Every structure is written in structure tokens, then in C-alpha cells.
């Protein structure tokens, strides 16, 4: 399976608190949650739904897993949505050293050597091992060269605060653009594949 990531992100790179609840993630005094709620047109929402439906497995960080389990995995209206159906009927893996008894069916906790576990999952037959949200996990996966494809859903807003997907100091990556579109509401979908390190001008 190839490992793909899908992330809603602001123009200034923030991923924190994107969901429908303004108090979803108040870490470090963050007060601008819910910035992605209602963003995107019908085609963007259809694109997101199709993405979930083609997954062969899902991989989550602990925080995103808890949010999803408490919404897509628990609320009847959300469970009946095509995204909820896709999540419920597909194997789920969560990277955590503290979760011991996941309540969402078909969930496996990866609590040991995460790099080895993810590498083993990627070696299995299938299409996509998908990561949604889970920005801390995505940063770790990028640092360990485990990401095969990244989808950024860029919402046209500048927050000026909040945790960002890419750290101020981190590994450098060149990216190959493989798909790009902008919807009627200005939301841009950009699909990239890692392409080694960037080339820099030398003296």
C-alpha cells in the first residue's frame, strides 16, 4: 500500500482546530477553531468523500483518532454518511503508547516500533494506507521518509496563530505536483509526491 496523507490547512500553514467545533482543540491558547467548517464547494466535499472511500486502511495519531471515534464512529448521523461508512468498514490503526482499549471496532494500536509497523503495513497488498488530520504524526512520517503522497486542502484564510503542519526548523523536501484544482469557494486541492531534496543555489 502507498501511504497518503490528506490535510486541511490554512494559507499560513495552520492545521489546528479545523473542525466544526470552535473548542475542538484549545491547546496553547488557540481561539480560532472551526476555520474549515463549511469551506469548499460540493465538488470538494465529493472529492474528500471519494478519498475516504478508496482507502484500504487508515492510520491515525491519538488525538485525531479520539476525535474521529467520538464523531464518525459514534454519532448515528455521521456513521451513516459515506465517510462514516468507509471509516467503519475499513481497518484502522492508531499510533499511541497510551491507548490500550480502543472502543472503535476494527482498530489496532501501534504502540511499539512505529517505523517498523508502518513499513510492514505499507508492504501489504492494497491501494492506500490513508492518514487524515494527525499533523504531529504526518510530521514524523515525513521525517522518516514514509509518505508517498500528500494532499493539501488549502482553505483561503490566514489565522495568525495555531499549530502548523510544517515546523519552523525541520527536514527539507522537494515536491512534485501531480494534481491541482481550485473550487468555486477558493479552496485549493494540491496533490504532491515527495521528490527528494530541493536544489539550492551555490556560490
Distance between the termini: 42 Å
CATH superfamily: Dihydrofolate Reductase, subunit A
Main sheet makeup: 8 strands, mixed
Strand content: 15-25%
Mean pLDDT: 92
Under CATH at level 1, the class stands as Alpha Beta
Radius of gyration: 17 Å
Number of helices: 6
Which descriptor suits the 3D outline?
globular
Spatial sequence of strands, sheet with the most strands: 4-3-2-5-1-6-8-7
Commentary on this structure:
There is one protein chain. The protein has 203 residues and is an alpha/beta fold. It has a single domain, classed as Dihydrofolate Reductase, subunit A (3-Layer(aba) Sandwich), CATH 3.40.430. Helices cover 25% and strands 24% of the residues. The chain has an 8-stranded mixed beta sheet. Strand 7 (175-182) and strand 8 form a beta hairpin. The longest helix has 12 residues, at 42-53.
Amino acid at each position: 500500500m502507498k501511504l497518503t496523507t490528506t490535510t486541511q490547512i490554512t494559507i499560513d500553514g495552520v492545521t489546528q482546530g479545523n473542525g466544526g467545533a470552535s473548542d475542538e482543540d484549545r491547546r496553547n491558547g488557540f481561539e480560532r477553531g472551526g476555520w474549515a467548517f463549511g469551506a469548499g464547494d460540493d465538488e470538494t466535499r465529493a472529492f474528500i468523500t471519494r478519498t475516504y472511500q478508496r482507502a484500504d486502511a487508515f492510520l491515525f495519531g491519538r488525538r485525531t483518532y479520539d476525535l474521529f471515534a467520538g464523531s464518525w464512529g459514534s454519532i448515528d448521523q455521521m456513521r451513516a454518511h459515506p465517510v462514516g461508512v468507509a471509516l467503519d468498514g475499513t481497518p484502522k490503526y492508531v499510533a499511541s503508547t497510551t491507548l490500550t482499549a480502543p472502543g472503535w471496532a476494527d482498530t489496532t494500536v501501534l504502540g511499539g516500533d512505529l517505523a517498523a509497523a508502518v513499513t510492514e503495513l505499507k508492504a501489504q497488498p492494497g491501494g492506500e494506507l490513508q492518514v487524515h488530520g494527525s499533523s504531529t504524526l504526518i510530521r514524523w512520517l515525513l521525517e522518516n521518509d514514509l509518505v508517498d503522497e500528500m494532499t493539501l486542502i488549502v482553505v483561503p484564510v490566514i489565522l495568525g496563530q495555531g499549530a502548523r503542519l510544517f515546523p519552523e526548523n525541520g527536514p527539507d523536501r522537494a515536491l512534485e505536483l501531480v494534481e491541482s484544482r481550485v473550487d468555486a469557494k477558493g479552496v485549493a486541492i494540491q496533490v504532491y509526491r515527495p521528490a527528494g531534496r530541493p536544489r539550492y543555489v551555490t556560490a
